[in-house]
Amino acid sequence: MIMSEPVPIIDSNTPAGMLEADLVRKARRGDLNAYDELVKRYQQRIYATIYHMTSNHEDANDLAQESFIKAFQALNSFKGGSTFYTWLYRIAVNKTINFLKQRKKRQHMSLNDIDFNAEHDPDLVALISDKTPFRNAGLSELQKFLNEALLKLSEPHRMVVVLHDVQGQSHEEIAEIMGCNIGTVRSRLFYARQQLQGYLSEYAKPA
Amino acid sequence: MNENENKFENVRRLLKLKRHEVPPPGYFNNFSGQVISRLRAAEASRHQSLTEHLPVQASWLVNLLHLFEAKPGMIGAFATSLCLLLVVGVVVAERSDAPPKDLIASAKSAPLAGNPLFSGVTPEVAQAESGGIAVSTNPVISLQPMTTFFGQPNQNPLLVQQASFAR
After folding, report:
1. ipTM surpassing 0.95
2. Which pTM was predicted?
């Protein structure tokens, strides 16, 4: 007798089991429980994007919270032309870029810790192996160099790199989030990577 | 495109490190709660500021409400005066719509003839009075000799002469 895997029971009446569209509709009527569920669904991605843009945990925390608050207050203007996720991302991206433009002169980093899995990532292991200039540099040092290099990029270029190479978003999604065409996304990505390669020339020589 | 991907392979591998940067443990356990708390606080402060600003913006209304609370009889008096005002308003409006009776009577008894200004009523005007249609081009005031305000006939009838500047 073959026993099937127990299927998790999802109650569609609870916020956790609801579809995004239903949650958005409820939240628009002022249902904070529904909005709480929406926040839980996207908090990690929104926070991570802002953090990688600012290289500062405290700023990322404030901006992520403010983005969610602004999104709730502007829910009535959400017409459903895109997904809620894309719309929310757009708010967070605009908020972050505006913040960074104002902050230009006082950039200071407050980096998060690197998780345990990084030491087992084959790509990263290769970078800190004897064959690379990173043989004496630990992951923390590499992290610092990398964040400093990212902060040297302009905000739109940094955003494209973060969304594509760190967050794994497609060109189409990035174009929709940033309100530009795919060609612009591609050219920004190329230019940003080229710049990064220059800043990290000692560590990231062309293959 | 693949060429570009290969060209920047090391940059992409370096950027993978960013995915391993994580916020303090348990950070996301409280995140949504903080957002919802801030939303509730913002809602509460908005209500509070509304109630705080009402007395400043509409102090007369607040005074009136206080007066009603202190003297319930005032509500009846206020309502009665409002009703009276409404009735008076309706009556006045109806009266102003109807034309004055004495004006109608005088118009019927001596149409324009008694008026020195309209002494020489033309046939067109007379026709209009008797139910015909007056045309805007019809002369209302004729140039015939008319009596003065002192009852004597005008000795100098209005004469029209052509002005000429030729020498």
Report:
1. no
2. 0.65
